[in-house]
Amino acid sequence: MIKIKAYNTPIYNYLRKYAEENINIFHMPGHKLGRGVPGQLAQDLLQLDVTEVEGTDNLHYPEGIIKEAQEKAAKAFGADKTFFLVNGSTCGVQAAVMSVCARGQKIIVGRDSHRAVASGLILSGAEPVFVRPGFNEEFALSAEIKPESVENALRANPDATAVLITRPNYYGICSDIEKICSLVHSYGKILIVDEAHGAHLAFSDRLPPPALEHGADICIQSAHKTLPAVTQGAYLHVKGNRVDMDRLALNLAMLQTSSPSYIIMAYLDIARELMEREGRTKLEELLDINSWFGREIEKTGVYKVLPAAKMGIKAIQDPTRLVINLKALGISGYLAEKLLREKYRTQIEMADYENLVIITTVADTRESMTELLKALKALAGDEFRPGREYKAEKLRSILKGMGTGEEDGSLKLLPWQAFYSKREEISLMESAGRISADIITPYPPGIPLLYPGEIITGACIQYIAGIIAAGGKVNGITGNDGIRVIEEDK
Predict the structure, then answer these.
(1) CATH top-level class of 409-486
(2) Which has the closest alpha carbon to 396: 337, 481, 451, 470?
(3) What's the helix, strand, coil split of the chain in %, to 5?
(4) CA angle 312-200-318, nearest 5°?
(5) CB distance 199 to 225 below 8 Å
(6) pTM for the full model?
(7) CATH number listed for the domain at residues 278-383
(8) 416 by DSSP, 3-state: which?
(9) Which residues of the chain have pLDDT under 70?
(10) Residue ranges of the domains in the chain?
(11) Hey, what CATH topology would domain 58-272 get?
(12) What was the pLDDT predicted at 293?
């Protein structure tokens, strides 16, 4: 009998164990542990791990195979030019902000943006002008950025250089990109769209239109989130002539590694090819399956699925992103996520205080969705007690206030100024009125509650404490419930 040597490799060992548990997964990356990639394209990955030698081209000065692959991607996604990103959408967002703003210049930013925008503001030295999303009362989550809010910001800040919005947001909600794009361009500004969660939108007419379709100047997409690509693989697309292409390329070369992964680049190419070959057919099948799933899960009388119909004609939700509200279940989303994993071998993408977020891609099947339905029904039977309702009203009220600006802490320092200021750690519960020195972010979804330089409000403290008490995680809060703030003059 051959004895297999056990290696002292905790990361590798756990990942192998996770793969072998045969968990029903509804999280990124979109290839779902390789289930969405043909076997011949998923073999011998280490043989793809090469460097810049004769014939392999150079990501930062592409002339050969990388240039050809980027051109094919540009054509597939409707861009004039596409850059491959091996450091995820984060570096694309950072490079975009740095390419349209210099220190002291203004940029209009959706307040529901990912923390990558905060780091882009720090790196560029730009001044953010925040535009706040709407609030979905039924599901207690941030909704779309309204075109009139963007126009109000443009009128009030004629010196702003650009507008940056996130679309879709983590819940799949898509703002009216046609109207926003038209507005931004009518004011002579550049529109950047963080479309990290929307790389698949170009491949089905039943989905919300991609931002490039209506002329967004820069569009950043995480291929690994919704396409059969590997983690950190992303695209940055450019359309039109408003963007300084040389400056953008230089910023990308500064922010991305000088030793890019050929595995990541190969799968950016593979993802594009697979979606062009069979993406439309598979998305049609997936959308039909998800429609069936939504009807079946709501028959339980316990769960609600976020519907497109209640968000207006132009603000629509991506039906591949299933958002399930379980307020009536009597438990938090955080606990539901834990129970699904421990008792029903199901791992979702994200939970918030009262919703589950499920990512479905072309790698999913009716079988995987049927198993998810069984798990959720079993969870309802396990935990639900008639008449018992999770008491989330207080936190709902706080979240709504923060989302709409009613409880907004004002920006006292620009993010870059706060980042370079002296800081100290104090108790979260004693931090009201102090200036945050960190990006404070429930993770996921990675949307900052506090930017560096913002005043910490009592409502924000209550919300952070509520998330932690319910089992959620908040990045930027230290292990002893501390928070780093700007040091005050003695």
Answers:
(1) alpha beta
(2) 470
(3) 40, 15, 40
(4) 20
(5) yes
(6) 0.93
(7) 3.90.1150.150
(8) helix
(9) 1-5, 308-315, 382-409, 490
(10) 58-272, 278-383, 409-486
(11) Aspartate Aminotransferase; domain 2 (3.40.640)
(12) 95
